[in-house]
Queue: 3 jobs
Job 1
Amino acid sequence: MSFFLFRKRSKPPSLAPEQQEHRRQKIETLKAGRLAALTLSFTNELIEKYGPRLAGSDASRQAALQIQAAYEPFCDQSETEVVRIDTTFHSFPLQLALYLYPVILVLLLIGLPYLGLLLFLAYLWYAARTLYFYKPLGKLSKPNVEGVNVHAVLEPQGEVRHTLLFTSHHDSAPLFRYNKLDRISYAKKVALPILLFFLSGLFNAMHLITELLEGRLFAFSLPPLGMGILCLLLLGATPLLLPLKNFYLQEGSPGAGDNLVSVGMTVQLARYFHWKKKSCNDPLSHTRLVFCSFDGEESGLEGSKAWYQKHKEEMSGSLVLNFDAIYHADKLTFLERDINGTQRLSSRLARRCVQIAKDMGYEAVSESIPRLAGGTDAGRASLAGLEATTLTSVAWDDRTKPSVYHTAKDVVSAIDAKAVEMALSIAIRLVELVDSDRLWEVDEMQGPAKKEVESEEPELVFTKLTHR
């Protein structure tokens, strides 16, 4: 991918009087390189000061307060809100499997395979609902810490006709005890326990089918000798499931790319539009900007869930661009589906953002988040009825790039500054289009009319002004 470089000219070309103001505004808009540098500096500062920020931890709460302080000079109002978070969201289902495993096998051994299979299927339903669909059962989800959400608002000069949210999260993920790159160890500590658990359910299903065929489903019936021996061996292998109990460490990732850099981007976007308003006398006309940093994203998106539930009515009709995992400049992706691909986002907004990026000279795509890749806060916005998408630039399947998110290597040096700059540029352009009521023009105009407008308005290219 090539980037245009703007260099100072010794003798700029002359402009007609009516063009001079137009040219000044375009140059002022091209500040993404500087904003990217400030973003990375902000990210590094918070990591050095607070380190890893597990959801609801003291470090995460303190970081939230500093984020609010960073918003305050640039916004008309800023607030923090306490949110209750269940930090066992991901770990409890794994621990539960350890305790259910011997029970399921014992039920088979005493001739009650239908109860064993029922318990196995009930667990699968619960685990899928929690870990895959992000819809935990209220009775089993017990918030145990208090986190802090932050949001700030920048009002337009005139009547509010549009509201645009830029969202992110400041908590960082807990580290995994077992590294996928160490395949042998990962197979022993993770894959094998999961396989054993599934075998316990499979054996119950097999014996249940046998009883159905023989017409003695509810009669006392021990399993065949061979299956009984296998069940005893599986029961003796219960200690092999112990790694599931401690799958997550009590330590957190530094969380630079996932996702503190995105928080820094929202701060710098607030800075930029405040600067346009105060220093350039060019405020937004009718677009309210809301900047959010959520806690508890790494615990089932609980921070954003609570925030959207509280602010659903006042945010009705808003557009949401969520930032998450900004790493690589050649991997810009706008999500059309979230939460393991189960939650529909705004395809219209995602594809329009892709077009904005391409019009600026950037390569970008729109697609679903991969299965088993988790979810982002845009999923909660969509569930609240808002048009939302997430901008991410992580290398899902590209093994030529380092996979640092959710690891101890997720530091500022792992982030490509160009990716940050490009994301900021797209966000700025999105705001301009929304405020001028031209966001959906591409959808509404076809053929010659569209080409005529494109020829009248020069293409904007946001690019790096610095030479880092």
Job 2
Amino acid sequence: MAPPENIAVIGAGSWGTALAKLLGDKGFAVDLWAHRLDHVAALLRDRENATYLPGFPLPATVRPTADLAQAVSGKPVVVMVVPSHVYREVFALLAPHLAPNAAIISATKGVENETLLTMNQVMAEVLASLRPDFTGQLGVLAGPSFAKEVAAGIPTAVTVAAPTIEGARFFQDIFHTERFRVYASTDVIGMELGGALKNIVAIAAGICDGLGYGTNTRAALITRGLAEITRLGVAMGAKPLTFSGLAGMGDLVLTCTGDLSRNRQVGLKLGHGKTLAQILAEMKMVAEGIKTTRSAMALAQKKGVEMPILEQVYAMIYEDKPCGEAVQSLLGRDQKEEIEEV
């Protein structure tokens, strides 16, 4: 497949803006779609995303727009970076305007609450309904990558996946730069689940930090959290080794330890005694782990997978269980053999 000249990035939050900047700096003509007219006007006026990614000028190759049809029409590559809870709605609106052979890659980390589908599965379902003529490919981008650091050109490594290695290498070539190293994979479901489920563990890590626990606790939580993610992933058809890679352990460590992690910040505030309603009222950006916790609980129950950390995060978020009690519930579980649990 020939390299594209024009790319659409759908979603102008911090991550969408960082990817648009990366692609624009690489020389692609990028249409960056935002859903609010006032946001687009500010992007055009200031040439930076002062709301979600301040301090990083957009290259001249990035063209902000609120016209979804214009953004995707004729584009050989579309990058989807809208929150999971509006993903289906936005994708259904743009699907009629897609080129029949477009390559579409999701950079959104979440699982749809109502259907328990990943973002690639949502796209496949919408395309089957609205665009039976579609012959293009779908993919996913995941891995440890804070938007601010990518925009600043700090060395970063991620992974892209598609059903075929040729498709993955196509996406790999698009995103790879001297400071943004991209690996290729064919484990689409594993990559999506690793990227989505790590946000739940990050909330738990933030809670433990907020309660004043130390690095021993955090290390244990990350390790056992990875075991839970792997169990559910394998039950859903993912490759176990995916979760020891960038989209698994890499993204998990970053999100559980980094101060830029929105999900960890949610946990910190919960650990400090704030309610979820108070936390959400203070946030400008989406913490995907809040909604993904509900989806993951339903998936774990459906697949019969034991996920005690997930269960306690769900209880704290949706059942108002005190954080200290949740920790005691985890520590009071029956003794287990470590490796056999995985």
Job 3
Amino acid sequence: MTAPSPMRLVLASASPRRRELLQRLGLALQVVPAQVDETPGDDEPGPVHALRVAADKAALVASRYPDLPVLAADTVVLRDGRIFGKPKDRREAAEMLAALAGATHVVATAVVARFRGVAASHLELARVTFVPFDTDLYAWYVSTGEGDDKAGAYAVQGQGAVLVERVEGNVQAVVGLPLAAIPALLRRIGLLLKAEDSRLTIAPRHRTEGNPDHRG
């Protein structure tokens, strides 16, 4: 008798970093990028903005895949009340990095899981300190293009590590997906992570525990 196929997790993100992190767990994954308005609202705090965008991504993709679990995330970089999103071009990337150099900023990553009208969210914060500004070093990093599509214009897990003096908190929040939050998020939407041979799979829970964040 053929075993049933594992439940797919739909990742509402085009981020190769998030995809790679989830694939390391062995999950059956389907990537469906979500295009939503990521413009910060007037006086919208950075963490609230990240949660809103992640929720919008999850809701949009879940409307297309109502019987599959959907996971979405959004990451923003914050310093002195300013939200640093993805740079429009390398000139803006250079300006962002110059503003972050030699100082500490906060990275906020929001994760939202959604399944059959039930949603749960998680917010992870980390503090990142950059090395002081050095024209050649920062100009070289901009020229690599690594930060072209990343919040704050850098990737801590790549060549951008040369700019990072220290990280306080969960470095996965800086990468863009805190994996440790996922088991609890799935439980809150009625699912479980189960071990199957060398991989993890997703299965329905037989008993509901706790209350989800919201329904809709």
